[in-house]
Amino acid sequence: MSGYIIRRVLNYVVLLFIACSFAYLLASSFLNPYSVYFGRQPPVDPDVIENIMRGCNLSHEVSLWERYTTWLTKIFTEWDWGCSPLRVSVNEQIGVRMWVSLRLVLIGTLGGVIVGVLVGAWTATRQYRVSDRVYTGLSLLVICTPSFVLGIVLQILAIKANDAMGVRFFEFVGEKGVVGDYPLAELVDRLQHLLLPTIVLVLLTAASLSRIQRNLMLDSLGADYVRTARAKGLPKSQAVMKHALRTALIPTGTYVAFTVATMFTGATYTERVFSFPGMGQYAVQTILAMDVNGIAATTAFAGVCVVCGAILSDIVVAILDPRVRLG
Amino acid sequence: MDIMELDLLPIEDADQAPKRIGRARLTLRRFLRNKLAVFGLCGIVLLILIAIFGPMLTGWSFDDRDKLSPLKPPNSSHWLGTTQVGRDMLALTLRGMSRSLIIGFAAATLSTLLSSVVGTASAYFGGWVERVLLWITDLMLVIPTMLIIGVLMRGGVSGDLAWVLLALLLGLFGWMTTGRVVRSLTLSLKNREYVLAAKYMGLPAWRIILRHILPNISSLMIVDLTLGVGYAVLGETGLSFLGLGVQAPDVSLGTLISEGAVLVPTYNWVFLAPSVVLVFLVFCINSVGDGVRDALDPSSQSGGVVGGKPRRGKGREDVPAKGTGLPGGIGQAGGATTMSEDNTPQGGAQ
């Protein structure tokens, strides 16, 4: 198994290298970092701009190939991913934002997974009853709602709730705000800011996952071994939990492993709506700010996430499903 | 046809042969049974009609500016209110909806075409063709597509034609997953007797793919196309929301929502109108997609149970297992194009 994983990782390393190079070359040839300094008051001297661009390895007077090789050498020798046209270090940005995203995504996705699996499994045992239809309708509605619409709707509701309560309980801008001076004030403040974006992520994850889980569960509820379990005298709850749910969890495991990893950059819209300074928002900012180095670094980061997700889901299958043998 | 079905014939009808209907009729019938899917189809048709004929009926054009009434709530002159610069929300929403629809359909068509070409070619030819195509697929799965589309949109055409580029890019970057499914289905088909027979008769490869392989995975392609429209609409509105899609002065549902997002909660209508339309549109597309999938899938239980009162665990028996379980019933590929309407207790409960 370790040989198999090593081979796959090696293949992915090559893919990642090409993906990053592709993103770098594409961004360098399509974007114009100089435009960041256009139209400034007072106007910036072209020589100054040129100097900054040279310092950031973005100058259009240097050939693309030369810039590319400089970029690569810096990464491999100093682990320096360059800086934006405004001279902000990419390493620093990603170093901070990564953990902001991790907090949001991990809580949101794990919460969503738990809710989704439970709701899916539960509705499957009550197929076509009123409760099943209600949850099915609700999850369909959430699936059809883009995350940014969902986020804004929650914002509207939060503002209404804040007004009604007369206290600013729901926070919906940024990651931290004004901290009071009571014990644990900072933690409470952070949690308040995390609350709404987390709800969005939980809803989105739970909605799609509960559909998948319900279908899987329906399949396994009708399976022979569940009937056998019932026939040999197991109570229904035990037959459902031990025999049906357990097999139905295998595909979910792979799906979840993949989602957690890719969600790092997948929470773009939620982060954008709630001005949460995470990786997803960074990806959009780099494009809008013509930040070639930032784009390449984000591509690398997202690529690593996908690769980790793929490998993680392989491992999860191997652990959960006794039939899988990797050679 | 099947012993199972003959057994189930009621005794008084024993002198009548079971009603035989064509595959298309059967699929249509199964689709029509699904009330949600029919609702979705009606919704889409309605939205398309509104997108075409609506602008003729409203008094305002999407680029008109009523300078006297900026940010007015819905009233008799502007049914859905106005934006900051006095543009009519109804006209804007209609325009944005037609943009999103066109982009969605164009992108989904392109990506379905690409996935079927790449998938069938890689499986049928094998060897280095397969290796190269699979490698490209893997590479494109690793690249964050939204980021690349964003970069290309930011550096590419701006203004009125941006939506064409957007549709093109969404199509070009959306085929990978389906391409892999198509490949695995083609792998199971390419050694069938009728494909081999065609091969030994000297048919060129593209003809075999077109005549003998594609028809057998057509149901997957149809489902992919319908669901793909939904994904493409979401992708387009998302990118436009971030400012990386359709460019002003042109509008799409995404740009309208992002315009409304900053005015929330005081001027709700700018956000609400396009959002409601978007959610409704995606809901309709998804329910049609689900309906088509269930109608085409011979092993699906939905054909016989919607509207009925099935007992749990029995649903799967409503359709005699004729297909191989693959979408589209590859079991029928041998030439039998008719099958009888299922007559099991659940199916008959309609």
Strand content of chain A: under 5%
Helix content of chain A: over 70%
- N-to-C SSE string of chain A, H for helix and E for strand: HHHHHHHHHHHH
CATH superfamily caption of one domain in chain A: MetI-like
CATH topology of chain B: MetI-like fold
Architecture overview:
The complex is a heterodimer of chains A (327) and B (350). Chain A has helices at residues 2-30, 46-55, 64-78, 90-125, 130-144, 147-165, 185-221, 224-231, 236-266, 268-273, 279-288, 292-320. By secondary structure, chain A is an all-alpha fold. The longest helix of chain A is centred in the middle third of the chain and has 37 residues, at 185-221. The model of chain A has no long low-confidence stretch (mean pLDDT 85). Chain B has 350 residues and is an all-alpha fold.
In short:
The complex is a heterodimer of chains A (327) and B (350). Chain A has a domain at 97-288: MetI-like fold. Chain A contains twelve helices and no strands.
Keywords, please?
heterodimer, A: 327 residues, mainly alpha, MetI-like fold, B: 350 residues, two-stranded antiparallel sheet, 14 helices, disordered N terminus, disordered C terminus
